[in-house]
Design a protein that fits this description.
Distance between the termini: 78 Å
Strand order of the largest sheet: 1-2
């Protein structure tokens, strides 16, 4: 046995700082042989480390990149054959889903190209809102036949230039004013938007579809694009946030939006839109560059402020309606965002958007007061009337700030009436745990105020043509359903001092259902394929709700039957996408238990 020379100890002896003695006729040392370990000669280790040159590091990096590419190809598939989606209907404008090989992916955009051109003044030459019937009516819908959709790549698509321009115009004129969480000047074309906001453009193509089947197919492709770029490629951009807000606001009704809302909140927080861009130590967050915002600055841009306020609005709405997630927390910086939007003259829609945020913030705080007041042994000693008075005062201030021009906006005024309904609903909660301590005249005043606000909301919907529903965001339909629920509960509310017959004389809920259903069915006569029309699906919801209310509001009315004489229940009328099986709002407003 010979002792190895200095610096030539094997790996195990080197780590244990032991003497390395080479065994005769064997490559292993005495210690490794005794411990039955694999002896790794030191010269091979030194040799491997000595080759760690620049060229070697480059080759190793290229090898790792090849491995990553192979891994992604194994996940997404490299040779996916074209997916042929059969013809959907003859009344939906065609979307040409082409190969995206020459298109720009949102994950490959440089940071400085992510800014959307905006006008410097609200006086920019924007055309007046076009007639919505011309945008969504039968004449426009029958113009092109949707023969087939072809997806040549696993994710994403590139619409035809004329189709993209047409749908962008419809979105900008008819949809966006109802919830202006993004500013799209009329000077920006679809091609320019494809370069700066490709994912946002894809979302606009989805939400402007009036076909249920087409929207479902495009929504699936959209979610694949989103998850591929955000999770697999780990390249979440501001483009994904604003596009996701548009998809959540106008996407398919009552889908599983909870995960997408949480993703939107995560993107907003990663981009640090709800907090200062500079921390207490004065260090700028270089991470923002990687997230696609661009060079970090000390202030947020207007588009960033709109996006985070829109994210708060949607998260608060979904949280209060479905009860499954916590909303985005309101921060002092978001107060500054809201004031800046109100003072801005960049976009004509900013004024109405700011009022929508203030209304939702008021609702958010009212829910917080309710939860604080109903914490069991820690119940607040403050009378409920005190909270109600404070909420009424804030609501009055918001109403005084609404200009005569904005008082003509359906979605804005509907949101105001809905807020008033929600504030006064505490007087007759379905859940006994949420009951307040108001009695006597104050209690009756709340009931009357809720009735008047719900009636005002319904009166607004009577002024809207059925086709206008297509341009309304999801929160309008949620608010409308809750106002109908409020009217139903007021019509059956048991209280010796409450005149249920007077309520039904003020507004007949069954007549409201009949009016809405009739106007929606008139549209079905104008559509070649009514089963694929979004309005007809909403009509089915109204029929299901009417069937639920009929036993108490119209007990003498015979049950609704089909052509075979079989009785149709409300469960048969509600479409599959209106899944009410386990939503907390049922317990909140109807007293239905989901468990």
């Amino acid at each position: 046995m010979t002792e190895s020379t200095y610096g030539r100890a094997c790996g195990h002896c080197f780590k244990s700082k032991s003497k390395c003695v080479i065994r005769s006729g064997n490559e292993s040392c005495e210690r490794c042989h005794r411990l039955r370990k694999q002896c790794s000669p030191a010269d091979s280790i030194r040799k491997r480390n000595s080759q760690n040159s620049s060229a070697a590091r480059t080759a190793k990096l290229e090898e790792k990149l090849d491995g990553i590419v192979s891994l992604l190809q194994s996940v997404t598939g490299t040779t996916i054959p074209p997916t042929h989606i059969p013809a959907l209907s003859s009344h939906v404008p065609a979307l040409a889903l082409l190969n995206t090989g020459d298109s720009t992916s949102s994950s490959s955009q440089p940071a400085d190209s992510m800014s959307t051109p905006v006008s410097s003044s609200a006086d920019e030459s924007e055309p007046q809102h076009s007639n919505i019937a011309a945008s969504f009516g039968p004449a426009a819908l029958n113009k092109t036949r949707l023969d087939s959709l072809h997806v040549e790549t696993p994710f994403g698509y590139k619409p035809r230039p004329d189709e993209a321009e047409s749908r962008l115009t419809v979105f900008r004129s008819e949809l966006l004013p109802n919830f202006a969480c993004v500013h799209l000047p009329f000077a920006v074309s679809a091609n320019e938007l494809r370069q700066s906001r490709p994912f946002l453009l894809q979302c606009i193509m989805v939400v402007t579809s009036t076909s249920v089947q087409e929207k479902n197919l495009l929504s699936t492709d959209l979610v694949k694009t989103l998850t591929h770029e955000v999770f697999i490629l780990n390249q979440g951009h501001f483009d994904h946030l604003v596009g996701l807000l548009i998809f959540l606001a106008w996407g398919n009704d009552f889908g599983n939006k909870n995960h997408l809302v949480q993703l939107a909140m995560s993107l907003a927080q990663d981009l640090r839109l709800n907090r200062p861009l500079i921390d207490e130590g004065g260090h700028k967050f270089a991470r923002l560059v990687a997230c696609g915002v661009g060079t970090p600055t000390e202030t947020h841009s207007l588009e960033h402020r709109r996006a985070v306020l829109g994210c708060f609005f949607i998260s608060s709405l979904v949280s209060s309606f479905f009860g499954r997630i916590d909303p985005m927390q309101w921060t002092p910086l978001m107060d500054e965002h809201l004031r800046t939007i109100e003072e801005s003259k960049e976009c004509l829609n900013d004024e109405g958007f700011a009022i929508q945020i203030r209304l939702q913030l008021l609702l958010h705080r009212s829910y917080q007061m309710r939860d604080f007041e109903c914490e069991g042994s820690q119940r607040s000693k403050m009378p409920s009337g005190f909270y109600l008075k404070a909420l009424r005062s804030q609501l009055h201030d918001i109403k005084a700030s609404i200009s005569p021009r904005l008082q003509q906006e359906f979605s804005l005024m509907a949101g105001f009436h809905y807020t008033e309904v929600s504030i006064h609903e505490r007087a007759y909660p379905a859940d006994a745990a949420l009951s307040c301590n108001m009695t006597g005249p104050q209690h009756m005043q709340c009931l009357c105020a809720c009735l008047e606000a719900a009636k005002s909301f319904v009166d607004l919907t009577f002024m809207m043509p059925p086709v206008r529903w297509l341009g309304m965001p999801l929160h309008f339909r949620i608010q409308f359903m809750r106002c109908l629920v409020a009217l139903y509960r007021l019509s059956v509310h048991e209280d010796p001092a409450w005149d249920k017959e007077a309520v039904r004389n003020t507004i007949d809920l069954m007549a409201v259902f009949d009016h809405i259903i009739t106007s929606m069915e008139q549209r079905s006569a104008e559509i070649g394929n009514p089963d694929d029309d979004m309005i007809i699906h909403l009509c089915k919801v109204m029929k299901g709700f009417r069937a639920f209310c009929a036993p108490k509001l119209a007990p003498d009315e015979p049950p609704l039957g089909n052509s075979d004489g079989q009785v149709i229940g409300e469960d048969d009328l509600i479409p599959e996408f209106m899944d009410f099986a386990d939503d907390a709002w049922l317990l909140d407003v109807l007293g239905w238990s989901a468990y």
